[in-house]
């Protein structure tokens, strides 16, 4: 039996966490949650095969680290996020899990295994909550990760129907040597609207809270709820999903939440700065706590560029400034690289020849995305695989080719349209509850 990774385990006490949320937990939301006081921020669940084989590319233009495969951006993070960033993995295979974790290990604080997703895609693939009912497989996955991934491992579970069975499973999970356990206080078959059963936290935390940080998740909506959860003996940390989705300034507690429009403006600026695709920004904003039936809400629903979205919240000047700055940086970087390559070429061959493609050119952003290829979601496991939490609302409509949701605009609709409206429209899925 392995012992937990002590340093991260002790760091995971007394913390507030942004829960993993597909489509929501991309870079702008993570930055915002952190600004407002979240201690750890989870990215959206990413399935092992999607991250395995990605090139890790330092995007000098944006200052990000991008994980790109076949021209598609699958995950984007900032180096400064590393101490508090959690990569959440969807997996059903011990070896693929390790390969996936190794791919991101150097850029994250720890890797979390999703053992709670109740959606059809996950269950059919033996992932998410299916692992709770195949404990031998789950234990193999966790053990292999703990022993071989080179990064601390945690997992996030739902409770089983019976308390004793839940406790027995938790004991086995903890014995693998994982660093923390997040417990969503619902069973696989409970609806998000069914009241969460906080009593399971009491039972788990009482029994295991001194061995490992237990992270409470489910129905923590207000600051007061965070306080109450922390009062449960043995509960180490709290994790919020839907309340943070509505207004991430909930993490400011005991300070009051900020007015949602202030939060949205900041979100939009991060989305622009880190080159989110407008579809993702729009989706996230549509989940926030404002009136979608208002004139502005309706305009948001039909917006087709970040510029339009920025106008709706009066930050178009910030948009233009950020784009101007980025373009200046791009030109400066290209000039620098061209000089460097020319000098190098002269040294090698004694004659000048055109600069070869640089990483900067290979990973362009909205303004220069020609070099990026596309993905056929149907070939890659199906759209639903990318959005297990949003049934009936495919992440990207089938046959449409776009990025994987983390920001780089490879959508042919958007690309080559640096600052303005795209030439054509594309559908954005309607929001729905997971
Ligand atoms: C939009 C959305 C996406 C979610 N995506 C994930 C995910 O990728 N991985 C995961 O483990 N849970 C996911 N969940 C579940 C949440 O992390 C959390 O367990 C659940 O919503 C209960 O917490 P809450 O009551 O604070 O919302 C998602 C929830 C929502 C609302």
UniProtKB/TrEMBL annotation:
<feature type="compositionally biased region" description="Low complexity">
    <location>
        <begin position="422"/>
        <end position="434"/>
    </location>
</feature>
<dbReference type="GO" id="GO:0050660">
    <property type="term" value="F:flavin adenine dinucleotide binding"/>
</dbReference>
<dbReference type="GO" id="GO:0017150">
    <property type="term" value="F:tRNA dihydrouridine synthase activity"/>
</dbReference>
<keyword id="KW-0285">Flavoprotein</keyword>
<dbReference type="InterPro" id="IPR035587">
    <property type="entry name" value="DUS-like_FMN-bd"/>
</dbReference>
<dbReference type="GO" id="GO:0005737">
    <property type="term" value="C:cytoplasm"/>
</dbReference>
<dbReference type="InterPro" id="IPR013785">
    <property type="entry name" value="Aldolase_TIM"/>
</dbReference>
<dbReference type="GO" id="GO:0006397">
    <property type="term" value="P:mRNA processing"/>
</dbReference>
<keyword id="KW-0819">tRNA processing</keyword>
<keyword id="KW-0560">Oxidoreductase</keyword>
<dbReference type="Pfam" id="PF01207">
    <property type="entry name" value="Dus"/>
</dbReference>
<feature type="compositionally biased region" description="Low complexity">
    <location>
        <begin position="405"/>
        <end position="414"/>
    </location>
</feature>
<keyword id="KW-0507">mRNA processing</keyword>
<dbReference type="InterPro" id="IPR052582">
    <property type="entry name" value="tRNA-DUS-like"/>
</dbReference>
<keyword id="KW-0288">FMN</keyword>
<feature type="domain" description="DUS-like FMN-binding">
    <location>
        <begin position="17"/>
        <end position="289"/>
    </location>
</feature>
<feature type="region of interest" description="Disordered">
    <location>
        <begin position="344"/>
        <end position="434"/>
    </location>
</feature>
<protein>
    <recommendedName>
        <fullName>DUS-like FMN-binding domain-containing protein</fullName>
    </recommendedName>
</protein>
<dbReference type="InterPro" id="IPR018517">
    <property type="entry name" value="tRNA_hU_synthase_CS"/>
</dbReference>
